[in-house]
Amino acid sequence: MKKTLILHGHFYQPPRETPDTGLLPIQESAYPKDNWNIRITDECYSANAYSRYLTYDGRIEKIRNNYEHLSFNFGPTLLHWIKEYRSDVYRKIIEADKESCRRLDGHGNALAQAYNHTILPLDDPEDARIQVAWGLEDFRHHFGREAEGIWLPETAVNETVLDILIEQQVKFIILSPWQAQRVETAPGKWRDLGKHPAPYREPYLLTRPKGEIAVFFYHPGLAEGISFGHFLRDAEMLYQHLSDIFSHDDTPLLHTATDGEIYGHHEPFGDMCLAALIQRIEQTEDITLGNYGSYLSEHPPKLRAELRHGEEEKGSSWSCFHGVSRWYKDCGCSTGGEAGWNQKWRTPLRKGFEHISRRLVDICKKELASCTSQTYQEITRSYGRVLAGSITPDEFAREILGPDAQETVMKKMLTLLEGDTYRRYMFTSCGWFFSDISGIEPKQNMLFALYAISLFRNHSSDNLAHQLEDLLHSAKSNIKHEGRGSRIIRTLTDSMLEPGVEAACFFVLNRELTHKECYEDRCGTYRLLKLETNSLGGVVVTLEREPNLQQKTFTVVTEFDRVDGLLLHCRQEEPDQGPFQEVSMDLLGSYLNSRLYEWLDQSMERVTDNDLEQIYHDMTYYTGISKQTSYQPGKHFFIANMGTCMRTLNSLFRLGISRQKRNEFDLIQALLDFIFQKGGSDEKETTNRVISGYLLSLTGELLDTDDCGLFSYIKDLLVLSRESGFAPDITRLQNSVYERLQKEDNPCESLKDLAMQAGISSDYS
Questions:
Q1: pTM
Q2: Is the preceding omega at residue 220 within 30 degrees of 0, hence cis?
């Protein structure tokens, strides 16, 4: 009988969006990517969806979807981001779960996760109940089935959490082996584990007055080796290590759980080691890769376990030796920081948020009662369908309030529910995990808190923002110049714009800095309803914020000052007229600033057909002369010509190259040759990025087109770029070409040629 191996990856990134617009700021620490979601997606989430198995000479022999054989969960907030910005990766994740269901008798690899990664034992019980319900609803929306198991953030659990899971019919959870206090060795015979880990070879039952739930305690040594021992550097050695455990322990089941980011992000190319391991296991007869749901259906637990209660009997987790103390006090567990630092700030941060949370819940309950007879608990639980995307906010409001509900009541209810959601976001676990209150994670939670307060502002006479500031005064940073939590949150408050201002400025500048075909009508959560110029020279912008259907009208005036540069003045006209507010570029934030430069670049880079003809003529002679003489003109001449080359190349790639005008390839070659020969590292890096972006824009057509001319065109462009010395990123091009080859019984020669240039082995079947 085959032995079962289960590897689980917990894939999660905390929500980092600006609450008002829902857009991610530029994160310089994620360079060369714009933010960490993009970077980790490339290095891990996408890498595992399209993991390479290479031939001896480095060509792609097979691209494997690792999620088909890896037990996994994705944090709901992360999966929604992947769906919007990397639909190809999202599709492969969903396909993998369906394939595992087919292979394992209806039991899929995917698990649910409690919604936004709060520490459930520290949540108010009703909040914990909603976190679980929203996580299960989100899973149902994405995967089209009921979740059998759920991942608990930081595997944090206590008896209250168990009761909630049983109530919501979750079948199993995965925990650290150090979270068990004792286990049965036979029915009715208990063994206290002391400092020893729980056995991993079989599932156990956790029994409660109203039911029971299965638990798998993962293999600790294997988890540590994968996470910190570089087991993912050699697939054959990892396979041998797994075989040794199976043999030494004589176990039918070996399983472990780690952060999913170890497979490619924390351990570079860890996804490829996993792909090679999967292939190695497929060649054996004694080990099979399974998942928890399938194993549980065939091997229901016969013995019981009891969990550790943790410090102050609050619960236990996998990343705090003391239980769940890491998320509310200075227990000694932290990541990062310097000698002598402490985490005493955790307690006032938690208590401050809890105080504000109670106040917001009281307001929400009271105001919702004026809208509908349904209870707060009923409405908030059902609101999970809006967050999942199963129902629109408008449909939800009419379902709760009736088809003839007044718009003002609908908007009020939706605004309250959105504020209540951000109230929960301020408890996202990462805010306490690291070493100092001045880190980006606590600050992000503070932003969520401030935004929740702003949405409740019309329903409270108290200044809750000032109350929170006072409560954080005792939270002292380890970094002297950061000061106290009160100073940190006050700085955040001062940098926050009124809701809608950033979006209003976005649309006005978009119209002023771009051509008509580049006009945009969406800015994250905002939709542009109307934009017109008034008689005084201002631009009147009417917006609708989709989560709560609230509409606002702003007047934006732009002004150029010789000393201060671009100045924006914004005033809210509706629903309440306010004074003009001066809005600096820094207040608008890094995302909008990056878009401004992008729009200006696109505008300045436009080159007409007549210009192209003249530039081609000039570049032909320029390169011809330079190859025949040692004389070179002054440096300023090179700088001017480099600017022309970069501008022309960007215009060609960004505005599109006509596939019929092959003479443009001659111009591209001349431009690339000049940039590679005369340009510095910045020019070459930029050019490589532009080529990569253009090739990426073409990949979307590859899966469905019957135009073999497209394959030939991409191949020629790739050859041309490489012959000129550039090495564009073709990772996603390779993914699309390989997928297309799998669909073809007899691929055309152009597709074969493109596959060869893309580094795909001819034995791709």
A1: 0.95
A2: no
